[in-house]
Design goal:
Layout (H helix, E strand, L loop, with lengths): L1 E17 L5 E20 L4 E6 L10 H12 L5 E7 L9 H16 L6 H9 L7 H4 L3 E4 L4 E4 L8 E7 L5 H6 L10 H4 L4 H7 L4 H8 L1 H12 L4 E4 L6 E5 L12 E7 L3
Parallel strand pairs: 3-4
Antiparallel strand pairs: 1-2, 2-4, 2-5, 5-6, 7-9, 7-10, 8-9
Helix pairs in contact: 1-2, 2-3, 8-9
Bound molecules: 4-diphosphocytidyl-2-C-methyl-D-erythritol 2-phosphate and adenosine-5'-diphosphate (ADP).
Keywords: ATP-binding, Isoprene biosynthesis, Kinase, Nucleotide-binding, Transferase
Catalytic activity: 4-CDP-2-C-methyl-D-erythritol + ATP = 4-CDP-2-C-methyl-D-erythritol 2-phosphate + ADP + H(+)
Protein name: 4-diphosphocytidyl-2-C-methyl-D-erythritol kinase
Length: 270
Amino acid sequence: MVAFANAKINIGLQVLSRREDGYHNLETIFYPVNIYDVLEVVEARDTRFIPSGIPIPSGGQDNLCLRAYRLLSESHDLPPVHIYLHKTIPIGAGLGGGSADAAFLLKLLNTMFALGLSESQLTGYARQLGADCPFFIRNTPVLATGIGDVFEAVRVDLSEYHLVLVTPRVHVSTAAAYRGVTPDPKGRQLKTAITHPVATWRDTIVNDFEVGIFALHPEIAAVKRKLYENGAVFASMSGSGSSVYGLFSKPVKIVDMEKDNQVFYVGGER
Ligand SMILES: C[C@@](CO)(OP(=O)(O)O)[C@H](O)COP(=O)(O)OP(=O)(O)OC[C@H]1O[C@@H](n2ccc(N)nc2=O)[C@H](O)[C@@H]1O
Ligand SMILES: Nc1ncnc2c1ncn2[C@@H]1O[C@H](COP(=O)(O)OP(=O)(O)O)[C@@H](O)[C@H]1O
């Protein structure tokens, strides 16, 4: 059985407070985007993970796909499987690719082996695999709070926009990105700001990671500047970076970007 695991972007991200367990409470909007990893699961004599496409640094045994399979195996009688993953979503780039793979694998195994797990049970498993992971179970635009795992539906529709997604070839550590932010419990009224026209977002919607990450990696700040110079209605870093996206009201081709970055031109439709 095959599944297509899509990426996400964050629209706005406020770090509200640091928790005793070292994680942070935040407020962000998750929005699914149309770039995909391809997962295939086949019953086999032994269990194996077979990656292709973009190489995954940590590679084999600790891959989130195997972790998701093992987690479900603890409470369900799953046969051995071969898990094929063709990786297209840039890794460690603020696009949630690893979390998407894990969440889509949980859903795939649930369907393939008729486990009968509900959405909330699947979300419970996803929560054990990473903060970003539960979002991909529902995979619809949401305002996320808690550590990014408590959801409220929001009305955001970017289907009229052309999304340009740029991933600079620099790796940003998520844990380091959190360390570089001073939490502010007041937040920035993201829930209200998101209901206003996209053209207002430039002045109202902020990703708290940008200041620290842009200081460390000016080339990421330069990408955001370039997206605005080319007419973006709104541009922002996604999550802890390094990816930056721009929303455009008409199709564009950004010159001189492909040399130093990976560039995806994606419709805003879902
Ligand atoms: C920043 C965000 C924004 O959507 O995504 P990315 O930019 O990485 O995609 C997420 O909060 C990342 O979620 P995810 O990548 O799943 O995090 P995890 O694997 O659970 O945790 C990685 C590390 O990030 C930090 N972390 C993560 C989530 C959170 N709410 N507070 C944290 O402090 C912790 O230091 C943790 O050890
Ligand atoms: N299936 C997977 N795809 C991508 N990364 C994975 C996967 N499994 C484990 N990882 C590890 O997770 C880390 C980042 O995951 P990813 O979801 O791509 O980043 P981000 O949360 O920044 O979008 C990397 O260090 C990578 O080695």
